[in-house]
Give the backbone structure.
Amino acid sequence: MRKYSVFALAREAMRHHSGWEKHWTSPEPKSEYDVIIIGGGGHGMGAAYYLAKEHGITNIAVIEKGWIGGGNTGRNTTIVRSNYLYDESMDIYEHSLKLWEGLALDLNYNVMYSPRGVMMLSHNEHDRQTFKRHVHANRLYGIDNEWLTPEAAKEYCPPLDIAATARYPINGAALQRRAGTARHDAVVWGYGRAASDRGIHIIQNCEVKGIRRGPDGAVSGVETSKGFIGAKKIGVSASGHNSVVMAMADVSLPLESQPLQALVSEPLKPIFPCVVMSNTVHAYISQSDKGELVIGAGTDQYNSYSQTGGLQIVTHTLDAICELFPIFRRVKMMRQWGGITDNTPDRSPIQSITPVPGLFVNCGWGTGGFKATPGSAHLFAHLIAKGEPHKLAAGLTLDRYRTGRLIDEAAAAAVAH
Amino acid sequence: MLLIHCPYCGEARSELEFAGAGEAHIARPENITEVSDEDFAQYFFMRTNPKGIHYERWRHIHGCGRFFNAVRDTVSDRFLKTYKTGEPKPDRAEFEGEGR
């Protein structure tokens, strides 16, 4: 694989860009691999990459039902942050944020990580107390997070309306400066390119239809639309479809799949310098490098695999955006879509061994999986290689639903869904 | 937005009047103090979360206020049937091949 660099750019500019290589090869599946990853999103593809890079396992297939980057990796609002409340959450999201910071260099691929700051708006006394608690918890844990007055918030994000007469008045904000955005597809493309370069097989348009198990109960491979593929270890990282895949091995999970919607506006000149989230009125917004305002809406209240959602959810969010940023009232929205998120009862993810030997699961990232992509992938690779969780992910096992040691970020998370 | 037929009110109303209440036909163990932690976790946390026919509870929270059950396809989001609490769980064969 040729390295991307300014010299490569100059070379290709001189010869009409005829020398760029394909990101990854598309081999026919072999009959047997050491590890199969089900789900070629950022988490699964990244896990394959880290298995090769850090654990020396390269005989891996990543099996993807659709195309790479077509699932939730391509459907999120690209926000990266680590200002969570609980230790277990801060561990994984901060681990991830640190990996984001060096990811472009590691992969030799521009993931466009932009630490432009994520600002969370406080609208009332309850918000103020909650966010200050977050700020203190984060700082005690060595994670940057600071409290801003309304005036400082306005200075950081000029389009914000902080008038006392506003429909949703603002009494302060919590700002994580290292947080920001990254280019969503680029992450999985970068992992895919680097994984393929290390000999990992990326098999697209291949649906897993069954998980085959040996007489001892351990996994022996998967039945797919391209035939049987053997493996002694299988890592499942299928986001909204985790329940469906794991049911093939008779493993039940505490998941409910729900649509989460997002939308983008027509492209505008650069006007919005950071990410702003409001938990109380449920809105979050940033501006992409193409100029579109990227807006995240909420989840629907029912289980669904439809990759769409109710218009009232989007309308509700736009109502809030128009109140917080009156200058956007006449901006036209261009596209709207939904992704299927797998939500756990405590709104914290699961990375775990399962009752089936050789079967590992990475699930429950729910509405906040994108920011975790490198960290989750890195820790999941460790779990698959070693058979036991990394110490940063030790609290995320399935066993917590038996012991009751839940990580209840639902009430404490920075944005509720 | 979904249109939901409340079996108590007898008419289809907008989703805004309703609150989804999760999977239906999950019976709380009668000997709840005696069940093992595994069985409790199974009852309390684990969900079938199927792609296709889903039995679920809804509450007509801004209407009659009552809970009822529904059969819905989670791919098309279409309601196949709603029925009163306590009525038997409809056989899924009833809904197969119906152009869901």
Remarks:
- Residues 53 and 93 of chain B are 10 Å apart (CA to CA).
- The mean pLDDT of chain B is 94.
